[in-house]
Design a protein that fits this description.
By secondary structure, this protein is an alpha+beta fold. It is built from 11 helices and 12 strands. Strands 2-1-5-4-3 form a 5-stranded antiparallel beta sheet, with helices on both faces. The chain has a 5-stranded mixed beta sheet with strand order 7-9-10-12-11, with helices on one face. Helix 6 packs antiparallel against helix 7 and helix 9 packs antiparallel against helix 11.
């Protein structure tokens, strides 16, 4: 079933499915075994070759000394008696001038002078000599050992030495059988070990990653998975809450509009009351439009589908324009607005900066007391440009400071509806701050006003 799903994914996406971890481990273990075996084979061949040469040297030296002793006792005639006895070992007697006096393999008269042979020179100088070289006569690697006889001539014995290659070739049948058994054993062991290694991974509880008792190396991955699961759950809950809140917030003004319109339609309103009812319908319709606009703004910010073209913006001048637009609303509540500070340039998205400052200033008017004051300061600080908005309004309890930036969150729902709030203004401010890498802080005390600072 899993294989069919993988094949379908490859057909639809045109992508190669990642290699199996199990196969990769098995191949790696087999490759390591193969390399180890080759190295072992090479080292074993060297050791055996050295051992064979050492044994051959020991045997040849002992044999040469026996022959030397026999010649010293009985004379050179002893060599004539050996012609039909020893076949494998070649025996040669050489004069001091290098001429060959006797050879057990060939006619000595046909052999060239041996005075330049290393083992002969050493024997004439120190009494014995040895050498390993390729023989010109027999075309094989030979070991030569020479001893100085009592009569001043040199006795030399020689025997063919197996080369390193021949030693290695000799081991091939045995090592091949061992290699086959080791490969089969390694494949079975790799399969078993891989299954043990993979089993905890295949049995991971994805929903609760940190509850798994697995390898320490997987801890960062499990922590990341747990964090991702929590983020997904938080996003899911936020979406559910947002959907419920949106439904409720949209339904309230629509219900009011529908109710007022139905009363007017049925002729239950006197002519003198029509302007009042029309005003109510208009306010609810404006509230609905504002709510929809705020929802669209938030959706764009969430999806990062806003126009991201940044430009140099004078925050002081922008704030002055915003205060001018809000002056009618402030006049209705008899709220006095003051702007202080200095011109400050900031590179950002003008539309979003406008909405951020506008929403904070508008909230300062909405939740202010009649005859209150809103003080706005814009200027440069050591940490960068800052916009500070302070009011003399109703204030916010400390336990609500962190949550006022959540969507549709209201400290006092009844007062918020009376003041025309949608519960989305500060959420837009928060998203705008994240988009610009800014920090928003709140300082508020109930009954003593609120101060919101945006540090860019």
């Amino acid at each position: 079933m899993v294989q069919e799903i993988r094949q379908n994914i490859r057909k639809k996406t045109g992508q190669q499915y990642p290699r199996s971890m199990k196969r990769k481990i098995q191949k790696s273990m087999t490759a390591i075994l193969a390399v180890t075996f080759v190295l072992f084979y090479a080292i074993l061949s060297l050791v055996l070759y050295d051992r064979n040469v050492s044994l051959l040297q020991s045997e040849m030296k002992q044999e040469a000394k026996y022959i030397c002793a026999a010649i010293n006792i009985t004379g050179p005639e002893y060599l004539e008696q050996m012609d039909n006895v020893e076949v494998r070992t070649r025996v040669t007697r050489i004069a001091r001038d290098g001429s060959v006096l006797y050879d057990s393999r060939r006619d000595e008269s046909t052999l060239e002078n041996h005075g330049n042979r290393k083992e002969v020179q050493d024997a004439l100088r120190v009494g014995e000599g040895e050498d390993i070289r390729r023989s010109v006569t027999v075309k094989e690697d030979m070991y030569y050992y020479a001893l100085l006889l009592d009569d001043g001539t040199v006795l030399r014995v020689s025997k063919m030495v197996d080369s390193l290659a021949s030693t290695a070739m000799t081991l091939i049948p045995l090592m091949g059988g061992i290699a086959l058994l080791m490969v089969l054993f390694a494949m079975l062991l790799a399969r078993w070990q891989t299954a043990r290694l993979i089993k905890p991974i295949n049995e991971l509880d994805i929903e609760h990653p940190l509850d798994n008792a697995v390898y320490e190396e997987l801890t960062p991955l499990l922590v990341a998975m747990d964090k991702q699961n929590k983020e997904k759950e938080a996003v899911s809950n936020m979406r559910k809450e947002f959907s419920a809140n949106v439904s409720h917030e949209l339904k309230t003004p629509l219900t009011s509009i529908s109710g007022y319109a139905e009363i007017m339609k049925n002729g239950m309103v006197r002519n003198t009351d029509i302007p009042e009812f029309s005003e109510r319908i208009y306010k609810e319709a404006r509230r609905l439009i504002t709510l929809v606009e705020d929802i669209i703004k938030l959706s764009k910010l969430d999806e990062e589908s806003v126009e991201l073209e940044k430009q140099s913006v004078d925050l002081y001048e922008l704030t002055r324009e915003i205060i001018s637009r809000l002056s009618p609303q402030a006049s209705q509540k008899n709220v006095r607005m003051e702007l202080t500070g200095e011109p400050v340039k900031y590179v950002g998205i003008r539309q979003i900066l406008d909405e951020m400052i506008y929403n904070v200033c508008e909230n300062a008017i909405k939740y202010n007391n009649d005859g209150g004051r809103v003080t706005v300061w814009v200027g440069n600080t050591l940490n960068g440009p800052k916009v500070s908005v302070a009011d003399t309004g109703i204030g916010i309890p400390e336990e609500h400071h962190e949550r006022i930036f959540e969507r549709f969150y209201r400290v006092d729902k009844s007062h918020s509806k009376e003041r025309g709030g949608t519960g989305l203004g500060l959420s837009i401010v928060k998203h705008g701050a994240l988009l610009h890498g800014a920090k928003v802080s709140v300082d508020s005390t109930p009954g003593r006003g609120t101060k919101i600072e945006m540090q860019f």
